[in-house]
Amino acid sequence: MRPKVNAQGNAREAAEKPVVPAIVAAAPLPEASDPLSAAVDTANLPQPAAYMNLKDAGTEMWFEIWSSGQGVYKRTDRRLIGQFCFTHERVVELQETIISEGMVTEGSQGQLVPHPAAKLLAEMETKLLKMSESLGLTPEARIRLGLNSVDLQSKLDGHFDQYT
Q: Distance between CA 13 and CA 122 in Å, rounded?
């Protein structure tokens, strides 16, 4: 494979690292003497720092998911949890828009039409539900994934009750 050439004409390696979303650096994982050992206490691992650019609702959700799901989620789940929290923020913003402006608005000819935010809200809620199932945040998903722990279920249900 030929090397890529940048704007200055310098060759650079073709095998560059892929671009990934910016994530705030997380606390280091504890060192284990045997990397294959199951003796690492995953329930007390530090929470990864929240994704950058999350606002209040997303950041709150981020820490709620990580603290409620300690021992369940791994650092490799950060991206999906970050997307979930970002989508959650959009849902909250759209809900606030609809509450302040109403479900309908005036169309170009004076007729009442559904507010554009209502359609976006429905789309975002559908995405949020799919991600919730992937993360085990619904009762059915917890059963399917074997996460039907009473502690995990009650912590997450208690948090999500405020949004229903």
A: 44
